[in-house]
Structures are given as structure tokens and as C-alpha cells.
Amino acid sequence: MTNPMRGVFAVPTTPYTEDGDQNLDAVAGRIDQVLASGVTGILGLGATGEALALSAAEREAQIKTIVSAVDGRAHVVIGCMAYTPSEMSAQITAAAGWGADAVMVTPPFYGGLDPEAVIAALHPVLSASEVPVMVYNNPHSTGTDLLPVHLASLTDTGRLWSVKETSGAATRIRELRERLGEDIEIFVGADGIALEGFAQGASGWVAASAWLLPEQCQTLWELAARGDWAGAVDLWRSLGRVLGLIEDNSAFISLIKQALGRFGYEQGPVRPPLPTADPEALATLLDAIAELERKHTP
């Protein structure tokens, strides 16, 4: 791929068969459908993909499936989330060897480490990485909020490609852009504030919702990218409600999977300990999607 790594990156779920195994054919088939919308890339083995519930062998099989299914048509980023720096680096080396264009890492996700300790752990990981690295700032899940000043200290590794920003702080995208400049890409990581992030200068969007609604998410990005803010706001009035229903539900992964199943893309359940979305939440989401499609047919 020669196009810049910016724009919309869809985040796959991990579908399972009735026996509880990964359904890799379903992953590959959905990739074809999602790429038809024009998204820039696929970010596999994120939280939405239940990455922490997969064995090493399952990770390998899914990464190879994603790389093969994409087949050079888009960028492939792979989540390499682990507690220790050595395990992060081992996952990065494996993902790069299997064809990933870039990887995503998070702060160690237990222990409430202060930002300085996290940066000390991540710095050698980025320095040794064979491919560009996205750092995922998700204080809700990791217990650590990496501010622009902390992330700036990773730029000297030469491998900090981007930041996925999910703190929810109202001005954070703008602050990251001001501190990191134009050479580091800044992605919105919280679907419910995507349009606000675009308005603050985000490079793109890492979107779990783009696995469910790729055409609408890609359209929103394109409208904002060309400065059609009236069109973007009009779409956002309907799309934002849908994304809020997903993001505000603690069982959002199950909700996405169940909705995909209703649209003919069977996903199977989530793996414990993840919760299962209740029927009422699914019905409300499906009604909102129907209203979105009535007003904005892709």
C-alpha cells in the first residue's frame, strides 16, 4: 500500500462457530464487504475482536487470515496488547512477520501505573519495533491517561506512527495535534465523539462501528475531510445516535455481534467474561439503524 495510513480503520469482531472455535471464513468474508466501502484499513485483534480471549495459535490464525483477505487492498494494523514489554515486542515481531503494516499497543492494563512508568515500558518496545506503532490511550480500560506531553517523549523512537485517543477529554485531539505536529497521525478512538474529533484535526477514526456500518462511517469521514460540515452534521444526527447506543452499553461487543447476526453475518456469542447484550438493547439499536438507513441510504 502506498496511500497514507489515515482515514477510517474498521475493527473486526471475532466470530465463533457453534463449537466455540474462530470462524475465520466469516472474518474474511466480512473484510471483503467492509473494504468495498472505501475504508483505509483494518485494525485486527483490538478489544472489539476479543483479542485478550484468544490463544496464541488463534491470534496467529486470525492475523494470517486478515492479511490474506485484505490482500494489499488496505492497510492492516494488529493489536499487540500485553502486560510486559517483552510480550508486546514478541507479538509485534510475529505480526510483522505475518504481514501486518503496523501495530497498536496499549499501556500495561493492570496496576494503575503512572504515565512515566508506562512511557518507560513503551519506549524500548517502540524503539525495537519492525513496523510503525499506534499507541492506544484508553484510560478507562488501562487506568493510565497518557497526555500529549507523555506521548511526545516517544517520538524519538522513530516508530510512533499514531495515537488512538479514547480519553473522552473534550479538547484532547486538538492538544495532541498541537503538541505532536503534523507528522504523527491522531485517530479518534471513541465512536460517540467522532465528528468532534474530526473538527479538531484528527487524521482519522479507528471505528468498531465501521465493522457494522462501514458505508455510513466512511461517508461521515469523507464529508468532514472535504469540509462539508453541513452534510457531516446532518448524517451525524442519525449516525451519532446509533453509535451512542453501542458505545454506552457495557456489552457493546455482544451488541455489535448480535446486530451483524441480524443482518445475515452470523457471529456467535462473546467469550466469557464478556457480557451479553439484552434483547431490549438490541431492538433499540436495530430500530435506530433502520431510521439511519431510511434517512441516509448508503
Automatic annotation (TrEMBL):
Belongs to the DapA family. Keywords: Lyase, Schiff base. PANTHER family: DIHYDRODIPICOLINATE SYNTHASE. Pfam families: DHDPS (PF00701). This is Dihydrodipicolinate synthase family protein. The keyword NADP does not apply. It comes from Brevibacterium spongiae. Signal peptide: none annotated.
